[in-house]
């Protein structure tokens, strides 16, 4: 009897590995998208106009934060749904609830890392009032600079992208799930956002 490779555990492993790899490769796109969205306020004195219109800067920040939450929720919902459908078609897999559960479980870690990275990008854009800075800093890291640095500097493993690299490796996640990288990303978020919020609330736009 011929065994359908696509339906075996080996076939599902390869499919899920490809999905996590795709989520990792999506990070540069997320960085560019988030930086452009958050930095639009700084084009043609948009931030000055908003601050003069909305006197409560905390409310403005909360609104931007919540809208980014909603935007990322919609974006990643579409992305995850598309990834699952493409995975079924590309690897000729039959739909099953167990496969969907496994897909959502293992992709959730990488998805959370991507969301943290998006908020880190937004924080940098707010801190420096520019989309150029977050893209200039994070994009090179994501396309290979961080790995290059890691070969010379062991502390490079604490960079926000390398810290969670293990969450995009399916075979590694099957053996153990180390979430310490998410904690490192949270520390980066706390540092950047606390600085960005402080300067935004104190900034004179007149």
UniProtKB/TrEMBL annotation:
Keywords: Membrane, Transmembrane, Transmembrane helix
Transmembrane regions: 20-39, 65-91, 103-128, 135-153, 182-201
Protein's name in the database: ABC-2 family transporter protein
């Amino acid at each position: 009897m011929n065994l359908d490779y696509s339906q075996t555990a080996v076939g599902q492993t390869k499919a899920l590995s490809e999905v996590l790899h795709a989520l990792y490769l999506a990070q540069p796109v997320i960085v560019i998208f988030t930086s452009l969205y958050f930095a639009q306020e700084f084009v043609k004195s948009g931030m000055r106009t908003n601050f003069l219109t909305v006197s409560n800067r905390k409310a403005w920040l909360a609104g931007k934060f919540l809208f980014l939450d909603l935007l990322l929720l919609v974006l990643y919902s579409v992305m995850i749904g598309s990834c699952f459908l493409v995975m079924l078609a590309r690897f000729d897999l039959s739909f099953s609830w167990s496969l969907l559960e496994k897909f959502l479980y293992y992709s959730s870690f990488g998805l959370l890392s991507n969301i943290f990275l998006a908020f880190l990008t937004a924080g940098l854009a707010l801190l420096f009032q520019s989309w150029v800075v977050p893209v200039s800093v994070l994009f090179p890291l994501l396309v290979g600079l961080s790995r290059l640095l890691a070969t010379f500097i062991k502390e490079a493993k604490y960079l926000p992208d390398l810290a969670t690299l293990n969450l995009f490796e399916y075979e590694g996640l099957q053996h153990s799930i180390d979430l310490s990288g998410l904690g490192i990303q949270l520390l980066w978020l706390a540092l950047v956002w606390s600085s960005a919020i402080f300067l935004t609330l104190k900034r004179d736009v007149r």
